[in-house]
Design goal:
With 281 residues, the protein is α/β, with parallel strands linked by helices. The protein has 2 domains: 12-81; 100-280, Rossmann fold. Helix content is 44%, strand content 13%. The chain is built from 7 helices and 7 strands, in the order ααβαβββααβαβαβ.
């Protein structure tokens, strides 16, 4: 059994605070000039009263923490006594679709995740949310899946960057590589969605699924000029003869609020035309 980590209610910093406050009071008594002794002593009395109040409040806080700690330990004891459920990979159908309990259904087992790393992903800490969500999603996949991650853009240097250039089995060292790649993602640049989608459709053999995560309207590389979403949809239809399933995830608190926005129309239509799922968060 693992040793229970001892929770310390008191810290050296808290004791230092009390010691420092008492030291300050003593210094005031010693250092005050003689001609202002009466006024200074009055200020010291006020300081002492404030210190007493702070000490009373701290004692009440400590008592409350002790009560909560007792309740937590009791709950932990009950949980430890209950048998834990075995950990297994999520069930997968013969076609490669994940069970509905996971939340997403894929057409097969060769998936490319396209991740928007444009500068707007700094808003609302979206990049952090996407990283956490993608890690959770990948962790839910069994080792029978093959995955690849493509970010767009690579700042001003390129419209996109792929992790491996091919899909690989999501197990062993490949899992570590994927998590390291996700950790390295940094927001910068525009949103060259067209370039990235067409690159993935052209360069990945036996691809069954694409999952696009983005927070904005497609733009041209190294430009704030908006791309034509309907032209992108037309071109993707033409470049997807093997019927790769394309699913989309919209990022941002206001994404689902305005269903007339270009980004909402683009992601919802892209997923509908290619039999994928569309969600926002």
């Amino acid at each position: 059994m693992r040793k229970r980590r001892q929770i310390e209610l008191f810290s050296i910093s808290f004791l230092d605070l009390l010691s420092g406050a008492l030291g300050a009071v003593i210094i005031l008594y010693v250092a005050i000039p003689k001609n202002t002794a009466r006024d200074s002593l009055a200020k010291v009395d006020v300081a002492m009263e404030l210190l007493k109040k702070d000490l009373t409040t701290s004692r009440a806080t400590i008592a409350e923490l002790q009560r909560k700690l007792t309740e937590t330990e009791a709950a932990a004891s009950v949980a430890a006594a209950e048998p834990s459920a075995p950990v297994t990979d999520p069930p997968v159908t013969p076609e490669g679709e994940l069970n509905a309990d996971v939340g997403f259904k894929f057409k097969g087992k060769n998936i490319v995740f396209i991740i928007d790393t444009s500068y707007s992903m700094t808003e609302e800490d979206r990049m952090t949310q996407v990283k956490a969500g993608l890690k959770m999603l990948l962790t839910s996949l069994s080792a029978s899946f093959r995955i690849e991650i493509v970010q767009f853009p690579l700042g001003e240097r390129a419209p996109f960057r792929s992790m491996w250039g091919t899909t690989k089995e999501f197990q062993g060292i490949n899992r570590m590589d994927a998590f390291d790649f996700i950790y390295s993602l940094r927001p910068s640049g525009g949103t060259p969605t067209r370039d990235t989608l067409l690159f993935v459709l052209k360069n990945y053999d036996s691809l069954t699924d694409i999952v696009l995560l983005t927070d904005g309207v497609p733009t041209y590389h190294n430009s704030n000029q908006k791309d034509d979403i309907y032209e992108i949809l037309r071109e993707v239809r033409e470049r997807n003869p093997t019927k790769v399933q394309i699913s989309t995830i919209g990022v941002g608190s206001n994404f689902l609020k305005d269903k007339s926005s270009d980004q909402f129309k683009f992601l919802s239509l892209l997923s509908q035309e290619h039999n994928g799922f569309f969600v926002g968060f």
